[in-house]
Amino acid sequence: MSSRLLLTSLAALTLLCGGCLRREQHSSGLVYPLQRRIPGDGLAVVNAAAGSGLHIWLDPDTETAGICRPRWNPDGARLSGGDGPTPRSGGRAPRQEFYAALRRGQVRWALRQQMQLLCRQRAPRSRFVWQEPPRSDAELLQLPQQQLPQLERQHLLSNPTAVRRSEKQLLGLPLTAADWDDRLPPRPPNGP
């Protein structure tokens, strides 16, 4: 009988001490929409003390005609101030934190709801198709790879004539007629 009383006392003491922890020492567990670029394209997951956590970025895949589904990015941002009125995100959170957050049913449910709303906004005539988020790097590699548009030479490099013209203007050097010719030089035969 005394062991039962001892266990009950220990349990009560543990609950009492747990309730005395300051807010900064435990996670609130909040999950809510947090804007990245447009409303609804992100989800805040407070999973650490003092409102820290993860800002998951949501991106719908509308490349297949008539279908909108999630395109998963496990490389979210670090969240700070998630319990307060002005949450901020910046930097990169580790992928393992993304995978750990997905163990919570509340996070998976919120992801599905937000992705469905985002699909309705971006592709209202498309059918929403839910695809479970990856829970490990191995599962991420098994997802169909989406082809992103390739960058062309003109997207990567500045026009060399325009750069030379700007340099001359900054240095106060006189400009010639050739400095105003903005045609790109011809591409090498085997070049990019």
Q: Which terms would index this structure?
A:
single chain, 192 residues, alpha+beta, five-stranded antiparallel beta sheet, three-stranded mixed beta sheet, 6 helices, 34% helix
Question: Can you describe this structure?
Answer:
This protein has about 190 residues and is an alpha+beta fold. The protein contains six helices and eight strands, in the order H-E-E-E-E-E-E-E-H-H-E-H-H-H. The chain has helices at about 1-20, 95-100, 105-120, 135-140, 155, 160-170, and strands at about 30-35, 40-45, 55, 60, 65-70, 75-80, 90, 125-130. A hairpin with an 8-residue loop joins strand 1 (about 30-35) and strand 2 (about 40-45). The chain is elongated, with a radius of gyration of 26 Å.
How many strands?
8
Question: Could you say which overall geometry the principal axes of the C-alpha atoms support?
Answer: elongated
Mean pLDDT: 81
Uncertain parts: none
How far apart the termini lie comes to 82 Å
Helical coverage, percent range: 25-40%
What's the topology here?
Elements: H1 2-19, E1 31-33, E2 42-46, E3 53-57, E4 59-61, E5 67-71, E6 77-80, E7 88-90, H2 95-101, H3 105-122, E8 127-128, H4 137-142, H5 153-156, H6 160-171
Parallel strand pairs: 5-8
Antiparallel strand pairs: 1-2, 2-3, 3-6, 4-5, 6-7
